[in-house]
Design goal:
- Helices cover 45% and strands 12% of the residues.
- The protein is of the alpha/beta class and 294 residues long.
- The chain has a single domain, classed as NAD(P)-binding Rossmann-like Domain (Rossmann fold, 3-Layer(aba) Sandwich).
- Strands 3-2-1-4-5-6-7 form a 7-stranded parallel β-sheet, with helices on both faces.
- The radius of gyration is 18 Å and the shape is globular.
Length: 294
């Protein structure tokens, strides 16, 4: 709940016609990014179904927004999330949009020093949790021949991020999972994409600062700057997610898109040309086609 005023500037009205009445499931809904997405989609007229392990946070959102449903659940548990998604489908009959925003960041520190139990827990929450939600939501989208899935990647997915190995590995795997699911569901008119939100002033930022030198000089300095900056990245992230959830994104699928660097007008104009392209994907630079400019 770190930022409330930023969404005043959100261009929600642009997507209202496409998103009004849509059934949108948001995991990690009680978090900083998750709660801002709840506000955006609620303002757009969507029916929001919120999933989070934080029951207190969900109850707080329930007091702020009338037309939402809350489901306290641990998404890393196959049994619990299968039951939760099943309950949602029985109640709403369909799910138009799934947004997987749930994530944890710890442990912070060098790989050989951090707790293996915390490391595994992060993989289970971030990667396995995202995969399970996709697994149980996709069948209803495939059956209806339409749907949008938006996963969240993050720092370390496209570059080595020392001291954040569990988080970075899980977020990298989410990108590849996104690409695979996009290929498997393209014939059923289901689009699957991943979003990199960039630095946002959330609980994760405070964790980096609290970890001090364990975070590493670059990450610590970035986190400190993020707490002082305006939250443009959060606004841009909301706009990108609204775009991907709407029909305006066309057939864009299987892509990792940055809310900071990838501009919506460019994506809209080039949506057809992205099909089959290596742009916005995880690929090896082989030196034959791509050359690094120094």
């Amino acid at each position: 709940m770190e930022i409330k005023e930023v969404l005043i500037f959100m261009p929600v009205k642009r997507f209202e016609n496409e998103l009004k009445g849509k059934t949108v499931v948001i995991t990690g809904a009680a978090g900083g990014i998750g709660s801002s997405l709840v506000e955006s989609f609620t303002l757009a007229g969507s029916k929001c179904i919120l999933i989070d392990i934080d029951r207190k946070g969900l109850n707080s959102l329930k007091t702020r927004f009338d037309d939402i449903s809350i489901y306290p659940a641990d998404i890393s548990s196959p049994k619990i999330i299968k039951k939760t998604i099943g309950s949602i489908i029985r109640r709403y009959r369909s799910i138009d949009v799934l947004i997987n925003a749930a994530a944890i960041q710890k442990p912070i520190g060098s790989f050989i020093e951090v707790s293996e139990n915390e490391w595994i827990k992060t993989i289970e929450m971030n990667l396995i949790g995202t995969a399970l939600c996709c697994k149980y939501v996709l069948p209803v989208m495939v059956r209806r021949r339409r749907g949008k899935i938006i996963n969240f990647s993050g720092g370390g997915a496209t570059f080595p991020r020392a001291n954040f190995s569990a988080y970075a590995v899980s977020k990298t795997a989410i990108v590849r999972l996104t690409e695979i699911l996009a290929q498997e569901s393209e014939a059923f008119n289901v689009q699957v994409n991943a979003v990199a939100p960039g630095p946002v002033n959330t609980k994760m930022t405070r964790e980096i600062i609290a970890a001090g030198s364990k975070s590493g000089k670059n990450d610590l300095e970035l986190a400190q700057r993020t707490t002082l900056a305006k939250n443009n990245s959060l606004r841009q992230t909301n706009e990108l997610v609204l775009f991907l959830a709407s029909s305006r994104s066309g057939g864009i699928t299987g892509k990792l898109l940055s809310s900071v660097w990838d501009k919506l007008p460019d994506l809209s104009r080039n949506s057809k040309g992205l099909k089959g392209s290596s742009l916005y994907t995880l690929r090896r630079i082989d030196g034959n086609r791509y050359f690094e400019k120094r």
